[in-house]
Amino acid sequence: MLRNEGSIDRILRVVFGLALLSLIFVGPKTMWGLVGLIPLLTGLAGYCPLYQVLGFSSCPMKK
Predict the structure, then answer these.
(1) What sign has the CA pseudo-torsion 30, 35, 41, 42?
(2) Structure pTM?
(3) End-to-end alpha-carbon separation of the chain, Å?
(4) Cβ contact 10:46 at 8 Å
(5) Which of 16, 38, 46, 60 would be 3's cystine partner, CB 3.0–4.6 Å?
(6) Separation CA 26–CA 24 (nearest Å)
(7) Cβ neighbours of residue 55 under 8 Å, at least 6 residues apart?
(8) From its phi and psi, is residue 60 left (phi > 0), alpha (psi between -120 and 50) or beta?
(9) Rounded CA gap, 10 and 5, in Å?
(10) How many CB atoms lie within 10 A of CB 51?
(11) How would you label 11-27 residue by residue, b for 16+ Cβ within 10 Å and e otherwise?
């Protein structure tokens, strides 16, 4: 699978995903925290399908 996310983008996605997932256990304890699975999984995989559709990539070009 192609990588279209840079390192900083991946780190931010994982942190944001974990923060959203924490809403299930602490705070308002809402199931909306499951939305955090999307940035978490895309950050771990390094690939975002929406980036591909939009033709965007935050991954540095290989020379």
Answers:
(1) negative
(2) 0.87
(3) 19
(4) yes
(5) 46
(6) 6
(7) none
(8) beta
(9) 6
(10) 17
(11) eebbeebeebbebeeee
